[in-house]
Design a protein that fits this description.
- By secondary structure, the chain is mainly alpha-helical.
- The protein contains eight helices and no strands.
- The chain has helices at 2-7, 16-42, 46-61, 63-67, 71-93, 106-114, 120-142, 154-195.
Amino acid sequence: MKKFLKFIGLTKDVDYYDRILYFLLLCTISVAALFMVFYVFLIPFPYALIAHATYLSLSILLYIPLKHKHYNFVRYCILSFHLVQLSLSVFLWFPYDTGFNIYYFMIPMSAFIVMRYANIRQRIFAIVSSLLASSLFLISEVFPNNHYLFETSSFTNSLFTGTSLATILIPMIFIFAMMARSDYYINKELKNLADKDSLTRFTIVVSYIK
C-alpha cells in the first residue's frame, strides 16, 4: 500500500488540502465505476455508456497530474468533469425520476473543500461553479426533462436515487471527519504553543489570584 501511495504521489509532505484531492478523486472513480456497472446491466444506451466511460477514464487519468503535483489543474478538472457528465444525464439522457440531479449538491460542498480560499481565482471558480450547480438543480426541479433519450424502469429509478443519496452522504462523512481531525490537531498544537515559553520551551504555569 505504501508503495502504491508513493507511486501516485501521496507522500507525507503533501499538504492537507492536497491530500483531500486524492480522497475525493478516489470517491469519484469509485462512484463512476459503480454506475458503470449499472449502465452495462440496466441501461443498454450506447451514448450514455460511452459518455460515462469517458468520464471514468478521464477521472482515472487525473492521477497522472496529481502524481506530478499539478494540484490546481486537478481541482478544476474534478469539478468541471462532474458538472458536464451530470448535466448530460439530467438534461439529455434520462428522465427526472432517476434522481441524478441530487448530485448537484456535491458541487458546492466539493468546491469549497478542495479549492483554496486564499487564491482569488480558485475562490471565484468555487463561487461560480456552486451558483451554476444550484441554478441547474433548480431548473431541473422546475422544468423536469420530458425530452430524454432513454426510458428507465421504476426499479432503475429507485436504485439510482438510493445509490445517489448514499454515495453523496458517505464521502461527505469521511471528508468532514478528516476536517474535524485536522482542526483538532491544529487546536492542540496551538494550545501547546500557547502554554510554552517561546524562548525556554518550558510550560507556562498561570496562577489566578482572587
